[in-house]
Amino acid sequence: MNRNIYFNEDDGHFYEHPAADMTPEGVDRLVDTYAENTQVAGVLFCVNLQRALFDSAAWETFWVGYDPALGDDQPALQRGNRVLDHALLRERGIDQFERWLARCRHHGIEGWLTMRMNDCHGLGETAFKQPGAPAWTLSWPSTWWRERPDLRRAPYRFERSWEGAFDYAQAEVRAHHLKLIEEVLGRYDMFGLELDWMRWGMMFKPGHEREGRGLLTAFVRDVRRLADQAAVRLGHPVLLAHRVPACPESALALGYDVAAWAKAGMADMLTLSSFLCGSWDDLPMELWRALVGDKVKLLAHVEPHLCPYPSQVVLNDYSLMHGAAASALHRGADGVYLFNECYRESDDPERLRHTLTHVGEPRTLESTERRFALSYPQVRAAGEPDRAVLPIPLRVPKIGADFGRMAENVTLRFATGPKPKTGKAWLRLGFSVELPGALKFHLNSRPLPSAAADGVPASPMPEAAAFTFSQPLPLDMLLDDSNVVEFIAPQVDGALVWAEIMVVPDRRS
Fold first, then answer.
1. Which structural domain range is residue 179 located in?
2. What is the pTM of this model?
3. Whole-Å CA distances, 128 to 132, 151, 160, 165, 232
4. CA dist., res. 47 & res. 349, Å (int)
5. In contact, 480 and 330? CB cutoff 8 Å
6. Helix H or strand E encompassing 335
7. Which of 251, 273, 295 marks a domain boundary?
8. DSSP 3-state assignment of 186?
9. How many helices (H) and strands (E) does the chain have?
10. Separation between Cα atoms, residue 416 and residue 324, nearest integer Å
């Protein structure tokens, strides 16, 4: 079984396990679940939020202020029962990260640590002092963040949490984060360290991202130096990875000169990512490869969650993950990256097992139902275009204004991975209004025969799709990688709000 899945074990999942698992055997068992007879190549263990998740001398810890002798009525426990599990691990002398990394070596897979470079959990709730906000959201921000509003990227406004993120243009902020990196690299024996820039992505004051590029590049150079020092201590290379926006233009607009990092040997692996709930099939893998070269491993962040356009409800269906993985691997991704799937270990182990044995390889994906839906690259700089295709108005607002549409014609381009060899395929569309008549389609410039769409799986569409339409697609008319559908839209008020190509194999697993 080929191993092409990289799996993020986040800041909280394991610490929601029962207290009985806060033992050496319980810690090891987590890695066993991910590694045994799966396609997992590496596991990345998160070491921090705004506080460290290990007994750090560099940063305030997540369980700071907790005293086992004081019982249940103490402020530290507002952060949740995770504090108790951390305390149990410390009391029993267990360093979970040390054991997890060793257990990865035992299984012959890569053991990584991942650091969140600007975590913002609870910042907006704390700044607003929102009534009714969960206690943990008000207690997770660090003491340093509370005491130093001058270090925030946009302290003059608050909408959610990004405004309260640390401003990396300030030397104190960079030094603070580098201090934890130095400690981690000096303490643990890891395959590599990932810098997770997507938690939460905005590192500079609005309008100052361009001038911040050089500062971030210098910061990453310092991390590379520390990783090389760790390699000398450990006697093996320590790789450096980055989780970055899926579009290179957005990465640059946010201050991440990823191409420069790669050319300088400061990026061994890149994960092209959304923030959350943002699977996107149309990853520009060829462009990324041209920018970073052949020596950098490129991973695609895939999710079972998809939002067709901003402000639309998120859809949750694992066939969307299968589609995203099939498209990315076909376009040359070296693997796929799973974020937040660790929670399936607890609430849906059967689903997790299926994911870990299917989504990392084109051969096994062929046996899964795959949905290739239009969406958009979720992460972008504030004020940058969102690149969403949908919704598309049925009535043409102005002839000649939309070069991709050309009057009443609607053109849809789907990234669909390899051409399916067997099974059935459908075009599935969702409209905000009922259509006054039938639609006629062209697929890759060839007219589609009219046919009843029998046997289409009852997979969910967003609530905005008040009227749905399905059209069978002959497999011999489909192409590798991309398929283009055209139809003449009825000139009525309303919009196309959902579009996908669904592929169902003859035998599913």
1. 5-273
2. 0.97
3. 11, 18, 9, 15, 47
4. 24
5. yes
6. strand 335-338
7. 273
8. helix
9. 15, 19
10. 8
Residue at a domain's end among 273, 293, 312? 273
* Residue 406, in any domain of the structure: yes
- Domain CATH for 479: 2.60.120
* 445 in any annotated domain: yes
Whether residue 408 is contained in a domain is answered as yes
Q: What is the pLDDT along the chain (509 residues), one digit of tens a residue?
A: 799 999 999 999 999 999 999 999 999 999 999 999 999 999 999 999 999 999 999 999 999 999 999 988 899 999 999 999 999 999 999 999 999 999 999 999 999 999 999 999 999 888 877 777 888 888 899 999 999 999 999 989 877 789 999 999 999 999 999 999 999 999 999 999 999 999 999 999 999 999 999 999 999 999 999 999 999 999 999 999 999 999 999 999 999 999 999 999 999 999 999 998 889 999 999 999 999 999 999 999 999 999 999 988 889 999 999 999 999 999 999 999 999 999 999 999 999 999 999 999 999 999 999 999 999 999 999 999 999 999 999 999 888 888 888 899 999 999 999 999 999 999 999 999 999 988 999 999 999 988 777 788 888 899 899 999 999 999 999 999 999 999 999 999 999 999 999 999 998 88
The C-alpha atoms of residue 6 and residue 342 are separated, in whole angstroms, by 11
In a domain, 377, yes or no: no
Residue carrying the six token digits 């990345």: 44
One-character DSSP codes across 439-508 = --EEETTEEPPP---TT-------TT--EEEEEE--GGG--SEEEEEEEEPPSSS-EEEEEEEEEE-SS-
Tally of domains within the chain: 2
Helices 96-107, 24-35: crossing angle, 10 deg rounding: 40
CA distance 105 to 102: 5
Which of 122, 388, 117, 149 is closest to 254 using CA atoms?
117
